[in-house]
From TrEMBL:
Alphabetical list of InterPro entries matching this protein: CheY-like_superfamily (IPR011006), NreC/VraR/RcsB-like_REC (IPR058245), Sig_transdc_resp-reg_C-effctor (IPR016032), Sig_transdc_resp-reg_receiver (IPR001789), Tscrpt_reg_LuxR_C (IPR000792), WalR-like (IPR039420)
Keyword Transcription regulation: yes
Highest taxon listed in the record's lineage: Bacteria
Keyword check for Cytoplasm: no
GO MF term list: DNA binding
Modified residues (4-aspartylphosphate): D55
Residue ranges constituting the HTH luxR-type domain according to the UniProt record: 155-220
Record keywords: DNA-binding, Phosphoprotein, Transcription, Transcription regulation
SMART domains: HTH_LUXR, REC
CDD domains assigned to the protein according to its UniProt record, in alphabetical order: LuxR_C_like, REC_NarL-like
Full protein name: Response regulator transcription factor
Length: 227
């Protein structure tokens, strides 16, 4: 199946470079280009995009707002957003993850990394750029009011719906482990892990694994480690 990619960046030169790269792959095609967030939201629906490569800083409706709009639209439930950022240590990245992005990637990444990111996002996996360590994500999720521990009481209560095994799997997902790795750690089959992940997403209202990571930290199930 061909992955339908939408490019959202206010720099035409960058869009052109991304288009050449994406269109060179036999399993991908660029179905549209947007110069701002509002256009990205519109085209995501019109062109039935699978993945949106979204710049954060754009005039008018920025990438953060556009990501939130896509995530809130039930008709765009199949759309996955990958945030492109110039600096990976970016104050907006955690907001983008909370808004519904499947992950992020630095604009300085290698072409192979960008193509892999598209495939990972299209497959419903959480995408963390190779340079973004688990500790970095933890620091993003720890940002906020220093007077509290970052917990969201409402989300903590939602964890009550999970079984013990689903909680165990959620902890592993938040650690950045793949289904195969989790299966090995918990001595179960990858299919069993996938079932637990899907059930956890349904119970917690998460679009994908990236959202499970956010819930795990915000609920206090997993504590950020700030080094």
């Amino acid at each position: 199946m061909t992955i339908r990619v939408l490019l959202a960046d206010d720099q035409a030169l960058l869009r052109s470079a991304f288009r050449v790269l994406v269109d060179s792959e036999p399993d991908m095609e660029v179905v549209g280009e947007a110069a701002d967030g509002a256009e990205a939201v519109r085209l995501a629906g019109e062109q039935r995009a699978d993945v949106v490569l979204m710049d954060i800083r754009m005039p008018g409706t920025d990438g953060l707002a556009a990501t939130r709009m896509i995530s809130a639209d039930a008709s765009l439930a199949q759309v996955r957003v990958v945030i492109l950022t110039t600096f990976e240590v970016d104050d907006y990245v955690v907001q983008a993850l909370r808004a519904g992005a499947s992950g992020f990637l630095g604009k300085g990444s290698e072409p192979e990394e960008l193509l892999a990111a598209i495939r990972i996002a299209a497959g419903g996996e959480a995408l963390l750029s190779p340079a973004a360590t688990k500790g970095l994500i933890a620091r993003f999720l720890a940002q906020g009011d220093p007077s509290d521990d970052g917990r969201d009481p409402a989300r903590a209560r939602r964890l009550d719906a999970l079984t013990v095994r689903e909680r165990e799997v959620l902890v592993q997902v938040a650690g950045g482990h793949s289904n195969d790795e989790i299966a090995e750690r918990l001595a179960v089959s990858p299919l069993t892990v996938k079932t637990h992940v899907n059930r956890a997403m349904a119970k917690l209202g998460a679009r994908d694994r990236a959202q499970l990571v956010v819930v795990a930290y915000e609920s206090g199930l997993v504590r950020p480690r700030v080094e």
